Amino acid sequence: MLALRPAALATRTARAAKAFRTAPRLPVTRHVLGVRCGASSSTAAGPSVDKSTVVPGANHASLPKNFEHGDTETRLYDWWESRGCFQPDPNATGDPFCIAMPPPNVTGALHMGHAMFVTLQDVMARVARMRGRPTLWLPGSDHAGIATQLVVERALEREGLTREGLGREKFEERTWAWKKEYGGRISNQIKRLGASCDWSRERFTLDEGLSEAVLEAFIKLHDDGLIYKGTYMVNWAPKLQTAVSDLEVEYTDEPGVLYYFNYPVQREDGDGEESNDAFLPVATSRPETILGDTAVAVNPHDERFKHLIGKRCVVPFSDPPRSIPIIGDEYVDIDFGTGALKVTPGHDPNDYEMGKRRDLATINIMNKDGSMNEKCGVYEGLDRFECRTRIWQDMEASGVARKQIPYETRVPRSQRGGEVIEPLVSEQWFCRMETMAKPALEANATGELRIVPQRFEGIYRSWLSNIRDWCISRQLWWGHRIPVYYVHADAEALKAAQSGTGKGSSSVYVVAKSETEAYEKAKAAHGDTYGSSLTLYQEEDVLDTWFSSGLWPFSTLGWPNEEAEDFQKFFPTTVMETGHDILFFWVARMVMLSYGMTGKLPFKTVFLHGLVKDEKGRKMSKSLGNVVDPLDVINDQGCDALRFTLATGTAAGQDLNLNMDRLASNRNFTNKIWNAGKFVLFSLEGMSDVEKLALVREAEAIGELDKNGIERELPLPSAWIVSKLRQTADHVTQAHDRHDFGEAGRSLYSFFYDDFADWFIESAKWRLYSDDEGEKQLTKAVALHVLTQTLTLLHPFMPYVTEEVWRSLPHRGETLMMCDWPELGLGRDEKAVAEFELAQQIVRAIRNARAEYAVEPATRIPGVVVVSDETTKETLQKELNTIASLARLDLETEGACLITATVPQDAIAHPASYVLTVVAEGVSVYLPLAGIVDPVKESGRLQKQSGKLEKEIASLAGRLGSPKFIEKAPADVVAKSQGELDELNERLKSVTERLETMKALAKA
């Protein structure tokens, strides 16, 4: 908002502000001014789920091939909500956790910005809930004064009606009817994202409790001298005919015109007929505002014009002629336009500031609808843009015009409807912010209020340090009507105040929560003056929507009733998660108003996310045709894939370029989770329900093992995966604690894909299919334990697939959502981790050799692993089956696959007949070429490769042997070519050596 604070605060205001936080609160009457009740304030009972019963799960054959997200999402969400899972658990003993959802506009339709904040907040809420904290994620919507009124007015237009013709009361009825029919759309769309917010506590900024809070806050601020009525510059929307906030103004670079003309300089005694100073050349993009000019400014250091300072210009087309001063001001850019600036304090924010500095008059030349007013003479009644054309034509006709050139300018447009905003000086209600800003600044300086990412703290402090008064009034009918009652001597006096453009105001007024209270106050203060004829009229304007949303973190919890159960338990809230673009307009105001109303911070942490852009980094817009609808993505790829992409795609405060390939990849991740669950279920085929129930208890016992227990009870792969799981749980939890959701999600992705699915499951297969029932049962228990715990960690990001897989497995309880978070800081067998990682290196070395020699995946090959350390050798020998299974080694042929301390004699005698890979110090792998390759076929392949390399070498050598090339080519090109030749020669040497080996093997 372009509101500018007065030069100094009044003494009364300073005294009132000092007592701002400690002033006693007035009694609250349950009366709503101009609004209706929209939400219940009852406290829900909490979750109704069984957390102790053990369930055998489903059969593998009953699960579909892939995860079918469509029906699953609706079914699970409805079940969670019906069982109270989204409500705070009254039995939870941890510190309360609360997020007040930033209220989307009631007119809104789900977009990627909503999807981002819903995902991140739901991740936080689900983690807190699983960690045993009473968790309240409180949803709601904003009445969106301008947007909603526009929607309803357009509907009226289609019926041939107008708001004014309908009247205020009927219009409000129509708007409430619209809200009843369409207002739940955005909430239902948010549910599609899996939002686990407590819908039983859903609030609306015009519901009874929140309206009561608005009245309380306005009256307190007014009584403290911080709300006043004044005339300042605002952003004016002529079509809407209301002031709008800065947030509702979007600036676009658009092609325009810069108009050059001669401003007549008023002649003085002594000026000659041929004086060069008859005109002062000026350039402007808005010639229509010349009728409101009150000065022409030049830079006092401009040698061309500084001698004119103190003279006067005559405003073209002013009738009667009006002269204005030529002033010197360093704000003027010497190099822009002509270097001289017309100053219109009534219609330009920069000129308004200059006008205040230089005590210039402010002239408003426009009506509220953007047409020229009576001060414009022959141009009265013209639209402002039509007037621009007419004035320029008249300038050309009178010889004042010089030229016009194309000029790109930043045009302020209304976010609601796109009309060009007019800077306009208007009488409005304002709130002084300087006093409230001080504790908000101090909270951040002391660390009491933390902003993530930290770089935004400097921006926050800068804005609060240079804060301006807030224009809180809007010329609308939909919203919280300002509780100001103007006092008139009688009905006739009121009628006179309403005549013309009057709005029934007067210099005498009272502020009250109801008309009854207003009469009592008015009679007490002015009854002796006006007697029984005293008449009241309520202010027609409503409050800025941001005023009610500024109270959101505490009004939604029951304030001004500070004894309310939710207020007592959940205020201050834990974190405010929102976009960095509204750090000033909303976050800072919540902090200031919370200090003013409650004396406390509204939240301890502010987490700011970035914008969601298209994959090219462009802002999504209808004009670019790059808007991605979250609902379309959910229908196509599933909610889990979208959530995981948004949560892990970027760091805090950074914009996210939405990549559709990445969305598809994360859809594949949901199927990877699904298939892992099916594999574990398949391994349980043949077990009775009783055996499955016992397996759940065995899996839980795995989680209770300490470091020594892991080392004693578990084979190497199991000890490794359990230790890695515990390490991952600790790391992921630490990432959540610092709000690094991307790192938490990526770590889980890596653990699930790389460690669990690719290594543990593959290494477990031979044990699951072995004849050793003890090993088979233990492996099943470990697999169930690790998968269940991993699903728990993944659940906040991907609630649907994790819940569905969990329900299919043998488990304890009714829902994964209410399961406990993995215990932290548990012992890990680091020795087992190191030993299994060595086994992984061995497997990778063998896999690389297989790939190099193009060995068929199904072919099992011989191989010898030589380990010098006896202890390590014994450990790996126990896992020979694991290594052979993972590397596809031949265990059936006696002596083909060994783990030994000595190098095979044949490898010593015929080293060229073996592929040797050094895995680590004291660990090597020997693979006999005869066992992995057909010497005849390989010789043919190498012969072709050799011939191709020889041709490339000959061509490059010929070029380097040419004197012309050496002389004319740049030195770096010659050097690059020589490097390529050296590399080709090395490759040919290697191929030749391998070819000789293959020929020898073929002869043998």
In words, what does this structure look like?
There is one protein chain. The chain is an alpha/beta fold. The chain contains 35 helices and 31 strands. The protein has a four-stranded antiparallel sheet with strand order 7-6-15-17. It has a four-stranded mixed sheet with strand order 11-12-10-13, with helices on one face. A four-stranded mixed sheet has the order 29-28-31-30. Helix 3 links the parallel strand 2 and strand 3. Helix 21 runs antiparallel to helix 26, helix 24 runs antiparallel to helix 25 and helix 33 runs antiparallel to helix 35. It is flat and about 120 Å long. The N terminus is likely disordered.
In short:
The chain has 1004 residues and is α/β, with parallel strands linked by helices. It is built from 35 helices and 31 strands. A 4-stranded antiparallel sheet has the order 7-6-15-17. A 4-stranded mixed sheet has the order 11-12-10-13, covered by helices on one side.
Terminal residue distance? 90 Å
Low-confidence stretches: 1-42
Strand content: 15-25%
Quaternary status:
single chain
Rg over CA atoms, rounded to whole Å, is 38 Å
Largest sheet: 4 strands, antiparallel
Helix content: 40-55%
Q: Helical region count?
A: 35
Overall mean pLDDT: 90
Strand order of the largest sheet: 7-6-15-17
What is the structural class? alpha/beta
Shape: flat
* Number of E strands: 31
